[in-house]
Amino acid sequence: QVQLVESGGGLVQAGGSLRLSCAASGRTFSIYTMGWFRQAPGKEREFVAAISWNGGSTRYGDSVKGRFTISKHNAKNTVYLQMNSLEPEDTAVYYCAARRAGITATTEYDYWGQGTQVTVSS
With a cut of 70, which residues of the chain have pLDDT below it? Predict the structure, then answer.
């Protein structure tokens, strides 16, 4: 069982930056693929980024490539999402997720956090 708690969301102006954190419980954090998703009101949950268990592989959604960076610190049981050049279209609730298998952009993850709100003003 893994519990995930996101933090770092907030209100930022367009062009600004935020760093989201996701703290995970459990000793086996290091073996999980971690992902970030987001969901805006009235829209489906969208894949943002994912990172392999050892941090060796990453994948990004097309809308965030070149602006967002995912990283993983196994010793701290934490995954991060650095978000730069934020746009109003990035406004959403951001969710952290974990799965035992490899990277996927689908929502087939085993564990999910409660989400953190990110609002980008124009």
Answer: 27
